[in-house]
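TASK: fixed-backbone design
INPUT:
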């Protein structure tokens, strides 16, 4: 467990059972009023230059040290879904030109990624689907300082309100609370294993354009079956064509908690497992804007394949903490007019 906490916890709640999840209503934590970035990290950075395609790094790669300061930390002594301080339990939506606002929370398209043929709908206690009132489905449980993102079968009586998607699960993003340009991003997690499970930790642009995308860690079941995880970056090249480059480091994901991280600079992206550099790539063109973090547990899809009789449902993605760090002047973050914490502040 991480010894560090940037939160003032007012109530800790939630228990998890083997076959079902029982949750209690609780008051969630908020950023402490005296929030400062006073925990530092020294990160090993490969001495070898990166190339324009993702390359795996040998275990004995020579390194130099990079000192960093912390800009974000959630150790999940509770879960804050309030804005602007907390996590958002949905993806960004499209733009409503009539009402001049970005869609999101109640827009069902952003509660799954249908382009991947995923089988889950991302829910939270306040989500109504098409019913018109909250369905009361909660995929998030905090217990003993660990966040559990639980994927379960959709209750049959609620399928019609959730586009008949057979599973519910959870996604959390910092799109409303914390955006950052460059730095080191890290998650300590124990990942579920089984056909169709697809946990991930990734970054996308705060200005709602796509690509770019930095996939710090994806663990679809078909890749995990090979003893690997996937790292990836998506971008648009000078001709306007979509490009991507990935590496598949060898690791175990189900035996225990592991640290999954990525160092993103103007020059390169370095991927880490347990703070050891495992792969790197030259930072592609256009991957240079403010981005936010996403943690999610997808179920099914064209990449991992559909759920079958062997899939362990409920599936449980356990997250001990999520953190972000920066180089340069400490405490250079600021708060925008909409409440979003931005690092560094322009």
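OUTPUT:
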């Amino acid at each position: 467990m991480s010894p560090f906490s940037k939160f003032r916890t007012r109530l800790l709640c939630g228990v998890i059972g083997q076959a079902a999840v029982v949750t209690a209503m609780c008051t969630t934590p908020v950023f402490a009023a005296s929030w400062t970035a006073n925990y530092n990290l020294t990160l090993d950075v490969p001495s070898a230059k990166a190339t324009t395609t993702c390359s795996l790094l040998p275990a004995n790669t020579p390194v130099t040290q990079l000192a960093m300061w912390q800009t974000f930390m959630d150790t999940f002594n509770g879960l804050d879904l309030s804005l602007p301080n907390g996590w958002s339990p949905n993806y960004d939506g499209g733009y409503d030109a009539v009402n001049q606002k970005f869609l999101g929370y109640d827009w069902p398209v952003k509660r799954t990624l249908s382009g991947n043929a995923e089988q889950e709908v991302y829910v939270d206690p306040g989500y109504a689907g098409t019913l018109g009132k909250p369905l009361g489905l909660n995929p998030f449980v905090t217990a003993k300082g660990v966040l559990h993102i639980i994927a379960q079968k959709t209750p049959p009586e609620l399928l019609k309100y959730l586009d008949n998607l057979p599973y519910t699960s959870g996604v959390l993003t910092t799109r409303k609370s914390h955006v950052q340009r460059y730095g080191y991003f890290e998650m300590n997690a124990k990942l579920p294993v089984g056909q169709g499970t697809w946990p991930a930790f990734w970054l996308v642009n705060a200005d709602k354009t796509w690509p770019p995308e930095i996939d710090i860690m994806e663990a679809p079941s078909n890749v995990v079956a090979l003893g690997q995880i996937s790292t990836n970056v998506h971008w648009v090249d000078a001709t306007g064509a979509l490009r991507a480059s990935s590496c598949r480091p060898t690791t175990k994901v189900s035996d225990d908690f592991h640290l999954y991280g990525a160092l993103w600079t103007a020059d390169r992206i370095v991927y880490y497992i347990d703070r050891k550099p495992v792969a790197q790539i030259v930072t592609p063109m256009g991957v240079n804007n403010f981005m936010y973090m996403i943690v999610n547990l997808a179920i099914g899809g064209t990449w991992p394949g559909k759920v079958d009789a062997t899939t362990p449902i409920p599936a449980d993605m356990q997250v001990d903490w999520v953190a972000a760090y920066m180089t340069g002047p400490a405490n250079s973050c600021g708060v925008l007019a909409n409440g979003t914490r931005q690092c560094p502040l322009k």
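COMMENT: The two ends are 34 Å apart (CA to CA).
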